[in-house]
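If it is no trouble, can you show me the amino acids of a protein and the tokens describing how it folds?
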Amino acid sequence: MLRELLQALAGHPGAVFVAIADCNLEVAHDLPWITAGERDFLNRLCRLGGLYMKFHKIVERQEDPTTTCKGHYRRALCDGLRQVLENYLKDLVLLEEEVVSKLNIALTHIVRTVEPYQALFTTLDLLIEDLETKQAHGCRVLDVLHQHSNHGDPACQAAIRSLQYHCHQVFFRQLSSWLLHGLLVDKHHEFFIQPTSTAVSESGASAVGSESVDGASISTVTLKAVKQQAVRVTKESQRQRQPRVLHSVLSDFLPSYIPMQLANKVLFVGEAVQMLAMDETGMQRSSSLYKNGSIFEEKEMVFARQLLAVQHQQLFGLAALEEVIMAIYSCISGRLWHYVMKEANLVEHLKMFRNHFLLGRGELFSSFLTQADQILRSPPNNNTVHDVNIAFQQAVGQLGATDDESGVSFRVTVSLPEKSADKAAPQVTGWQSLGLSCAVTWPLHLIFTDAAVEEYNRLFRFLLSVKRASEFLDSSWINLMHTAQSLKSMSADQRLLWKLRAEMAFFVDNLQYYLQVDVLTVQYKQLLDRIEAEQSFEAIRLAHDTFLASLCSQCFLNLKGQAPHCLKEIFHMANILHELLLKLSSWSDTDHLRLMDLNKMFRRQSGLLLKILSSVGNHRVNPHLAQLLLRSDFNYFYSKQSAT
């Protein structure tokens, strides 16, 4: 019966030990010579055989090519599980040899040999049930293993750490291919970095990188094979252009013991390697930064050996991995900084953006306002974009300038408003839909992202509205001067027009001075100082993002409530005043009433705005509001008006 027991422990039922449902074994019921106590004892031993059958089926199912539960992490887990089962079978083989050679071997000897596997197999069974319950896939397997790794039994802890080691081999090979070559070798979508869009070309780094390397399993692929894959991707991208695919970190797939900050650095390095290896058209770059088939040049093998050393550690070393990743990150960030600053000339592009989006070339946009005013007064249509770009080109031509400087080409855009069923809704004019588009030199799209350009356009529309109001008031002054020269004396309405125009100009000019001097000039100088002081690409990108956020904040684009509405109304009043002055020769009672209402409205809106600024201007959170208040009410004109 001892040989029957050993066969049952190996997962093979027989006449004495029979199989029941769910991979379980027990003593047959038609054996009267076995007592109830012996039956319970033997059934407990047979539980090991049932668990062995269960584990063996899991391993076989994973190796079956038709299985739906695919994945390199699951396969690596089964490789580690097979190793544990092989040790168990070796002990059973030794026991069988002892049973054959020694006829008087006791059952207690068998029990003593296999008893340590009771706790081990129970732990592995709980682990597998947890994996199935959570439907763990890819890097999620690592997280489940980590949760079960802190076990009090040394044998159980060693077995789980062995499983972790096998799964980490897959993780490190995916990590190495991404960090060193920008390849996402992830056929089953298991890595914590994934493309953000599925609309990817069939050729190129991202598309090819999602397949197995040269048909080999990821669990056996070498760094040499990964590099061969990178060379093949480069050659294919030379033959066929493709758009670059953006990637993101999936927090659900990120193991809990790897910080998100470190994962973001891994994401940055891989995308930077992809970007520096290919230009904006998907073709291989001939840049001086891309030599010997690698962006890292001679450092690639150093980094590869360091990653391999961490990979072969029996225990996962986060500190050692973080040290290697930071070294790679510093290298790629420094090279990217050199390219952006020296070859792509970031400072010159920032100057171009300031001249256009932030109205640094005031004379250009003064001419543009004159050329495009009639076109953009009405709601935009399909012809508006063409007409307004013609006006922009005429403004450029009048100044003898060019709209294409340092590889940055600016064009005027007008977004068509959506059709509204509400006829009472106010119409959106072309001025409210105006924007600029630009073709940014590669790789400055990492700095001037779509989100950044949208923020620039918000600033552009606001600053242009301020300048437009100022132009209206300047034009009104010219009209008033011509009228005053032809009249011997001025009427009360004319005197009120003079006074109202002066008050509006006083407010708008001070606002414009605050924006251009206290905000734009200061922030731009701080940005350039930070860029010159930094040697890291990420620091430059952060400085630019901070620059944009500060501009939007200090230009009141993020303010909620009455303050933005007051500014909008005051700009609109400047337009109304200009229209009234054009009708001065045919003045009527209706125009008189409009002038009275306009005077009251301006006093109300300007007074309300200054009250809002006064209420929050001294607060430390909004020091720029105090600066605007100082500019607008430096002689206490509005304070006295509010008091009266």
